Amino acid sequence: MADGSENRPVFELPAFARAAQEQPAAAHVSASHEIRGEEQALAEDLPKDVHVLSARDRAQQHDLATVRASIRPEARIQGIILEGGTAPNVVPDRTVADFYIRYPDEVYLQQVVEFVDNAAKAAALATGTKVKIDHYGKDLDGIGVATLGELGFAYMKMFGATNVIPEPGKPQGYEETGSVSRDIPGIGLTAQSSTASNHTYEMEADNLREIGHKGFTIDAEAMAAVLFDFATHADYRDAVKKEFTGIKALFAEYQAALKKVYTVPTVPDPK
After folding, report:
1. Cα separation of 229 and 215, whole Å?
2. Domain final residue pick, 90, 117, 139
3. I need a surface site. Which of 27, 50, 124, 134 has the fewest CB within 10 A?
4. What confidence tens digit (pLDDT) does each residue in 105-127 have?
């Protein structure tokens, strides 16, 4: 914010917000598939394909493979088996798989989620078991505000942030669920605090090293500086509000337009 001080970054209204370290992830839904059946001893006369392991294998290997061949290439279906029994010679009465289903926007994402859910339902029907589906988490697009993003970006560079990515990235909300940043303007600042890959023990260890301390300090300094400017400049608050209100209206139009693009075919009933 330009205020006559040579030590403060000059603010200009840009077209996009920028990220200091990471590009945003796609929207995603977290889903748990619990399949229930009858516990049975593993024997040669066990009815074929009528137990929870067959249902799980069918859903993951056959039905999901069919789904992947039919969806847009940007979609991702990632899954692991959380529970699959406790004894090698016993078919369990319960198995649980966990999935992350991802796509760049939430409109087509919902269609992919339905594909995955239907694969689990089909496997349960084919094997005489029952499935419980729980969509326990959801991360969706929020609204990014460049008036906050560019100022925070400038402060992070001024305070010494490293591994800065100067090119504008995809605008994003300051929290992953989209449920807050779609209604309240804000910003999330993340300075580099590790040189390791995300979600690794090496990244965790960097928290206690100099690079971690420096990154956290830069985050705090940049947050305080942006908050000070926001609190002491009425014209800046007006600019943030004006941009947020305008983007929120455009975002609603964008969502409506996506629904027209990702139309679901109308399939008639068999005669």
Report:
1. 21
2. 139
3. 134
4. 899 999 999 988 988 888 888 77
